[in-house]
Amino acid sequence: MLDQLEVAAEPTRRRLMQLLTSGEQTVNNLAAHFPASRSAISQHLRVLTEAGLVTARKDGRFRYYRLDPQGLAQLRTLFDSFWIDELDRLVADATEEAASEGDS
């Protein structure tokens, strides 16, 4: 599976995900929000799908895209782990600095 954080960080894909928060949409509806071609938007949607952040279903000649709740939960867990690790480092740094100031 692709790196979800890297995939979601790209501005066009991030905007596609934002647009999909309002619900399922076709590539044509999504492409209308971008200066890029429909083909380029389809490529971005394929990457999002491969990363597990978006799912697609075919209905007749249309393919409908929507956010994948499981993939988004995994991305959220990844973000949360970075945040918790960073907070732990900040606390450790502050504690170390306070201890060194007390020694002075």
Automatic annotation (TrEMBL):
<dbReference type="InterPro" id="IPR036390">
    <property type="entry name" value="WH_DNA-bd_sf"/>
</dbReference>
<feature type="domain" description="HTH arsR-type">
    <location>
        <begin position="1"/>
        <end position="99"/>
    </location>
</feature>
<dbReference type="InterPro" id="IPR051081">
    <property type="entry name" value="HTH_MetalResp_TranReg"/>
</dbReference>
<protein>
    <submittedName>
        <fullName>Putative ArsR family transcriptional regulator</fullName>
    </submittedName>
</protein>
<dbReference type="GO" id="GO:0003677">
    <property type="term" value="F:DNA binding"/>
</dbReference>
<dbReference type="InterPro" id="IPR001845">
    <property type="entry name" value="HTH_ArsR_DNA-bd_dom"/>
</dbReference>
<dbReference type="InterPro" id="IPR036388">
    <property type="entry name" value="WH-like_DNA-bd_sf"/>
</dbReference>
<keyword id="KW-0238">DNA-binding</keyword>
<keyword id="KW-0805">Transcription regulation</keyword>
<keyword id="KW-0804">Transcription</keyword>
<dbReference type="GO" id="GO:0003700">
    <property type="term" value="F:DNA-binding transcription factor activity"/>
</dbReference>
<dbReference type="Pfam" id="PF01022">
    <property type="entry name" value="HTH_5"/>
</dbReference>
<dbReference type="InterPro" id="IPR011991">
    <property type="entry name" value="ArsR-like_HTH"/>
</dbReference>
